Amino acid sequence: MRLKTLIILLIIAHGLSAQIESKYAYSFLTLPPSARVTALGGLLPTVMDDDITLALSNPASLNDKMHNQLAFAHNFHFADIQNGYVAYGRKLEKPDIHAHIGVQYISYGDFDYADILGHQDGTTFKAGETALVIGASKNIAERISAGINVKGVFSHLEQFTSTGIVADLGINYFKDSSDFILSFVVKNLGTEITTYNGTRFGTPLDIQIGISKRLRHLPFRFSIIAHQLQHGNIRYDDPDLKVKTDLFGEDVKENSFKNTVDNVFRHLVFSGEFLLGKHENLRIRGGYNHLRRQELSLSTFRSLAGFSLGFGIKISYFKLDYGVGYHHVAGATNHITIRTDMGQFF
């Protein structure tokens, strides 16, 4: 029964990230670290400003503006599953590097013990995972920055535990820190040190390339992110897809061009952000994740699966971000982030 419970928890964790591949642990590492990233489609490795949570998406995005920035983010997921991220950034003058530390966590809630017949004795257990993050970046050329995140991962699912070591590698080319950025990131490269039950799973590797560009005559920044580039074909066989036949009963062949276009767009996330006000204190955001829509939408119901929305506003010394990510007809995730510059207090 405990082994079955572990399998169910792994399926739940994997369901949070999509259906590309199921043979890896620590799926929670693929979740967006902040409300801003949730609102922008779930991925944002291509922006360099004062938002310290972006360093988890790409360590090369660490910069001077993140010095003394502190952020708390919490995401209200489905079925009482909750995850979040806490981060702090600092510029180290002597080695001339930018650094940050953080804690990424997820709680799957409380579960009831039951025997094989479903009888419960009233006892419960918990399940959760945590990653301790430390990262740094350095300008290796006038317009190029490189960075690395190292994560110690600790997973506890009932009596089953696993520990691992994971790293993110990133590099940014920027014409200006806000005007144009081209990013290349290798996410979650690592391995399990200790395993749940003797079987070693992989980590949720994700290779990403993206661009962000702020328009010259409009307070708007758009981003296009290509992800899962380590996989060529990320389409999957849909068991509910009906086989079409012609008048003679012969199977109609699939449109290979249509499938190719669909596969290309599954690799892409599109997003945009309006930066309003003299000091950009109001931000309106939206994003579209085609992979999420194709995998989690239902053919019999219309929904906003794959779309996401949000806003950011500055109130006194604090910046509040809210993001909502639509996954399927069952509902959406609601993400909240509070950020502040600790230098204003000390």
Task: Label this structure with key terms.
346 residues; mainly beta; Porin; 14-stranded antiparallel beta barrel; 5 helices; 14 strands; 12% helix; disordered N terminus
Oligomer: single chain
Q: Give unreliable regions as ranges.
A: 1-19
Q: How large a portion of the residues is in β-strands, by DSSP E?
A: over 45%
CATH architecture grouping = Beta Barrel
**Average of pLDDT:** 88
The helix/strand series, from N terminus to C terminus, equals HHHEEEEEEEEEHEEHEEE
CATH topology, which one?
A: Porin
CATH class: Mainly Beta
Can you count the helices? 5
Helical percentage? 10-25%
Number of domains: 1
What is the count of β-strands?
14
Model description:
The protein is mainly beta and 346 residues long. The protein has one domain (2-344): Porin, CATH 2.40.160.40. It contains five helices and 14 strands. The chain has helices at residues 2-15, 35-39, 54-57, 256-266, 290-296; strands at 69-76, 82-92, 97-114, 120-141, 144-157, 160-176, 180-194, 206-214, 220-226, 268-276, 282-289, 307-315, 318-328, 331-341. The chain has a 14-stranded antiparallel barrel. A hairpin with a 2-residue loop joins β5 and β6 (160-176). The radius of gyration is 21 Å and the shape is globular. The model is unreliable at 1-19 (pLDDT under 50).
